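Quick note —
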Amino acid sequence: MVNKHDSRSEETKNTILNVAGKLFSKKGYESVTMREIAKEAGCSHTTIYLYFKDKETLLHQLTMPSLRELHQTLQEIHIMNSIISEDKLKRISHEYLHFCMINRNMYSLLMNAKSTRVDEERPELEINKVRIGMFNLLKQVIQECLLMPNNDLLLAFTRTFYYNLNGIISTYLDNHEPLSILMERLTPTFNLAVEVLILGFREKLKQKVETN
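Predicted structure written out below.
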């Protein structure tokens, strides 16, 4: 049975998390201080450290459950044997797009806060390990589509694809259509974009082979 002290502690912790999420989304992760979060949450600047040792801990608790779930979903699509690689790429991209649009208020926090290079081999933060894991999964599927080695050109192709994906998301962050309607409207154009990018990558590979 939960006693009153434990219940109040859990309530305080949840309040701090909720306040931090709102402030990070509104002002940006780097601009918000622990003291500011504590003030908005109605606790002292010393009390907040009883629950969270630093701002990075808050970031991880706010983002990691959702990011891990997304990563797991993308991995499940990747190991499907019933669909071709290009369709896997479309599904993975659609899931990523859908996730980011559902969480559009937290998009910058989820994908950009404390981020590092996508080719960082040993990222310190767990959040970046998950982000880079998703990028590498995307790279694997693009590699399967193009039947090419894992080299600098594949990394460049994947970056190009990833930038395009996040560009679409950024374009519609402030869109007020119901998500189901927005996704229905975007999906045909987005699928076409995937096809065009893959065709472009194949043409670039062809040109590279011809010039060597």
